[in-house]
């Protein structure tokens, strides 16, 4: 039986497990296989599927064309009991751009479709939005510590997820929705980084950022409405996910994830994310719409 690295408190083991998860196997003919998460139970984390799909697409593109955007749709919930098959279609190999379509499937049924665009580096005009002023990460508590402190306040069936160690360290500026408190504006700031050093390959850092970009984002649209998975009064699921990679970065150094939600309605919430380096460079933008369907509160265990 494969050991689950998330049972280990060793940061290096956690990151090694993440790298193995995001490293797809070449099955030939532009087909790739993504490993299942060791010890995973239930639905596949959306960031895992996006990271593996991006890794598959990048295997078919020349090194001098880094990805600059991807757009993905979640079709079905993935199952942690199985690996994921990825089929890559080479739609374009132009003078400056390349384009790839990816279909992720389990047991013969598609669970995600993604289009990614790759651009050969070239000089151009520059401007960028500035980073908001927030407290530095050193003065903030690690979310893993906060989860351990608040785990007994969520239903028993959710405590395993609350207490599972993660390869991405997060330090939130504002309280998380599962920490209680009144409804507030849909805005959240989180410092994040891999818990241990990563290899120098930029593709690995992009895959890790793609994985981490699905964290905290959907919950932003629930902040004004007093609903959350921790209260058992909503059904939530990512519907689509887009990332624009603007510049180089390291995912093992502090990045600020600024999330806001300008709209929610029709049982859906729209969320945006901006990712800055510690030095204030804007290196990526993210957008996602998700299902935030209110439910009658469940009886607490």
Can you walk me through this structure?
The chain has helices at 11-22, 46-58, 143-150, 159-163, 202-212, and strands at 25-28, 31-34, 67-74, 84-93, 97-106, 109-119, 168-172, 187-194, 234-245, 255-265, 268-277, 282-294. With 301 residues, the chain is α+β, with helices and mostly antiparallel strands. It has a 12-stranded antiparallel β-sheet with strand order 1-2-4-5-6-3-9-12-11-10-8-7. It is globular.
- Identify the strand order in the major beta sheet: 1-2-4-5-6-3-9-12-11-10-8-7
For the largest beta-sheet, the strand count, sense and barrel status come to: 12 strands, antiparallel
Rg value: 19 Å
Determine and state the CATH class of the largest domain.
Answer: Alpha Beta
Distance, first to last CA: 31 Å
**What structural category do the secondary elements indicate?**
alpha+beta
CATH T-level fold name of the largest domain: Thiol Ester Dehydrase, Chain A
| CATH superfamily caption of the largest domain | Hotdog Thioesterase
pLDDT below 50 for ≥5 consecutive residues: which ranges? Answer: none
Would you report the number of β strands? 12
Beta content comes to 35-45%
């Amino acid at each position: 039986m494969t050991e689950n690295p998330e049972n280990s408190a060793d940061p290096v083991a956690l990151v090694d497990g993440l790298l193995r998860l995001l490293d797809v196997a070449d099955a030939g003919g532009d087909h790739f296989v993504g490993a299942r998460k060791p010890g995973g139970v239930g639905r596949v984390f959306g960031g895992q599927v996006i990271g593996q799909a991006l890794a598959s697409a990048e295997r078919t593109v020349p090194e001098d064309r880094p990805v600059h955007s991807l757009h993905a749709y979640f079709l079905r919930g993935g199952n942690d009991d199985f690996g994921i098959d990825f089929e890559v279609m080479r739609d374009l190999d132009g003078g400056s751009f390349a384009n790839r379509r990816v279909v992720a499937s389990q047991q013969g049924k598609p669970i995600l479709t993604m289009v990614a665009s790759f651009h050969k580096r070239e000089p151009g005009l520059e401007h960028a939005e500035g980073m908001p002023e927030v407290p530095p990460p050193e003065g903030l508590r690690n979310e893993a510590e906060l989860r351990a402190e608040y785990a007994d306040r969520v239903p028993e069936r959710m405590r395993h997820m609350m207490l599972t160690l993660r390869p991405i360290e997060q330090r939130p500026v504002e309280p998380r929705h599962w920490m209680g408190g009144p409804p507030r504006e849909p805005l959240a700031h989180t410092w994040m980084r891999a818990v241990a050093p990563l290899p120098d390959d930029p593709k690995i850092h992009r895959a890790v950022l793609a994985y981490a970009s699905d964290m905290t984002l959907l919950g932003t649209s629930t902040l004004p409405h007093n609903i959350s998975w921790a209260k058992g009064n909503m059904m939530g699921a990512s519907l689509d996910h887009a990332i624009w990679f603007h510049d180089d970065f390291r995912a093992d150094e502090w990045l600020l994830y600024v999330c806001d939600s300008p709209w929610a309605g029709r049982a859906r919430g729209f969320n945006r994310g901006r990712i800055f380096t510690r030095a204030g460079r804007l290196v990526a933008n993210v957008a996602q719409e998700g299902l935030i369907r209110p439910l009658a509160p469940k009886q607490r265990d």
